[in-house]
Amino acid sequence: MLELNSSFLWIFFLIWLLYFVLNRVFFRPIGGIIMQREAKIAADSGRHQDMLAQIEAQARAVEERLGQARREAQRSQEGWLEQGEEVRSRAVAAAREQAARVLDEKTAQLEKEIAAAEQVLLQQVSAFSAKIRQSYL
Fold it and tell me: What is the pTM of this model?
């Protein structure tokens, strides 16, 4: 059978003594350091998540402002195009009015010239016919 002698008790006592000494000197400080690091990692992870959420929120805000700026630029561009179209239509209308006025003036001038030319022709025809009458009479 198993004999229990004093060496077994001494070994058992020394192992327990070694366990308590190592626990006091080594295991507890290392356990504390590990707990501190885990707490720091958890806190850093929480801050990381918060910062990531802030960055995502800021990115969404920037994208929203960018979209709003694009819409505003498009509205401005459409406004400028409408104004340009209005200016163009006014310029075309003014040019048409001026062309109609010039055409009317030139038509009136040509009618006067035609009337004057007809008068000259009538006088020449009268004079020519008078000469023909005198030469045949």
Answer: 0.47
Quickly list DSSP for 59-91: HHHHHHHHHHHHHHHHHHHHHHHHHHHHHHHHH
Q: How far apart are CA 39 and CA 51, in angstroms?
A: 18
Number of Cβ within 10 Å of residue 101's Cβ equals 10
**CA proximity to 82, closest of 56, 33, 74:** 74
What the block records as the tokens of 68 is 């709003």
73-to-33, 63, 69, 88 alpha-carbon distances in Å: 58, 15, 6, 22
Question: 3-state SS of the chain: helix, strand, coil percent to 5?
Answer: 95, 0, 5
Rounded to an integer, what distance in angstroms lies between the CA atom of residue 70 and that of residue 77?
10
DSSP string, 123-137: HHHHHHHHHHHHHH-
pLDDT at 3: 67
* 44-84 pLDDT tens trace: 999 999 999 999 999 999 999 999 999 999 999 999 999 99
